[in-house]
Amino acid sequence: MNRIINLLFFITLSLGLFSCMSQNSNDLKAVEKKEAVFKEKHDSANLAVQLDGSYRTFIQKYPSDTNIPRMLFEDAQLNIYPLRRTEAALTQLDELYTKYPGSRYSANAMFKAAFLNENVLERKEEAKSLYIKFVQAYPTNPLANDAKLSLENISLSPAEQLKKIQAGQDSLQNKK
Predict the structure, then answer these.
(1) Torsion sign across C-alpha atoms 146, 143, 78, 73
(2) I need a labelling partner for 100 at 20 to 30 A (CA). Which of 112, 122, 136, 176 fits?
């Protein structure tokens, strides 16, 4: 009798897990379909809003899915353009590099968050902090030199930056 109960429990559990996996797969395919449509009309705010909603729903429904880092990054991209919701993008980028530091999207997310803070929102101190974290966390990343350069110039006005560039050019010409 105990064996029958254990067998029924195992079958019920297996069916439940299969059903969940199947639903996850269907939901992922639906998101991918919307991504393909958006790719064709990438400046459509209406399609971007729909895709944003699909990403958010999937992320809430399947928080441990391996596609979440990619979806967070792509959704942040949507929120930057065409939706122009910088704060929402920053929240997603922060979640990405905080919760998924080993993800292939993490470094780009942190750099992009620093860049948005510096250049769009003009939050120089937050940008500076993120650039420092970026250089410490990803010293060999191709964007590390850009982060270092941003740190050197973050406190300069555009006029001061121009003078610095011109001085560098003059220095190069004098060496020739």
Answers:
(1) negative
(2) 122
- Neighbour-count burial for 133-146, b at 16+ CB within 10 Å, e otherwise: ebbeebeebebbeb
3-state secondary structure of 90: helix
CATH number at residue 168: 1.25.40.10
- Reading phi first (left if > 0) and then psi (alpha if -120 to 50, else beta), residue 84 is in left
In a domain, 42, yes or no: yes
- For residue 12, being part of any structural domain is answered with no
Q: How many CB atoms lie within 10 A of CB 120?
A: 14
Work out how many domains the chain is built from and give that number: 1
In a domain, 62, yes or no: yes
Contact 52, 83 (CB under 8 A): yes
Which of 127, 130, 131, 107 shows the shortest CA–CA distance to 118?
A: 127
> Which domain, by its residues, includes 62?
27-175
Question: What is the pLDDT tens value at each position of the chain, 176 positions in all?
Answer: 666 655 444 455 444 444 444 688 899 999 999 999 898 887 888 999 999 999 999 999 999 999 999 999 999 999 999 999 999 999 999 999 999 999 999 999 999 999 999 999 999 999 999 999 999 999 999 999 999 999 999 988 878 877 877 787 777 677 76
